[in-house]
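# nightly structure sweep
# worker-07 picked up a monomer target from the shared queue
# config: single-sequence mode, recycle default, output format = structure tokens
# input follows
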Amino acid sequence: MNDSLENFLTDSGEFILDSLVDNEVVKEIPVIGTSINIIKGVKSIRDKIYLNKVKTFIDKLGSINEKQKERLINESKKDQNRRVKFGEALYTSIEHSDSMVKVEYLAVAFEAFLNGDIDNAELRLICHAIKSSFSDELMDVVENENYSSDLKFLVPSGLAEALYFGMVSHGTQQGPGYQLTSIAINLRDAWKKYGNKKSN
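# output follows
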């Protein structure tokens, strides 16, 4: 890597880092706040990309009010192991997202969790589904009332499920049908409720 590119990455990364280190929202989210504090000198593309993703997540989420903070605190007190899993699910989903659209979906899902629309387990399932999906199909299913994606390709991500109808005439078996799972429906509902509140 040449010196000018490395300096650019370091300078811009540190600028983003400075804006996140003291951010109250970041401090409230398990694992993510810790991971931000670990990155002191940004010298790699991976660090800069991750910081940009966290910034997008925070910008889409906005601020966290006292009631939402209380929900996070109460969740963390229930079970330390579950708290770690919850934080890691968010962290890895943000880190491994291959598009900023996915990061925005994570933010609206997290906001739905903070407002009690979905629970801890549902949020973790949504994180997995977002991380495992192809971005174009995910956008189509989440944002379009009349989506055009073939749902059979969304089964591995957990956004769709197969329906089997049993035997039909002459002993032949009818092929499966497909429908959105509750995970997809929860994410669609979260997007409708929170997705257009703040755009980047």
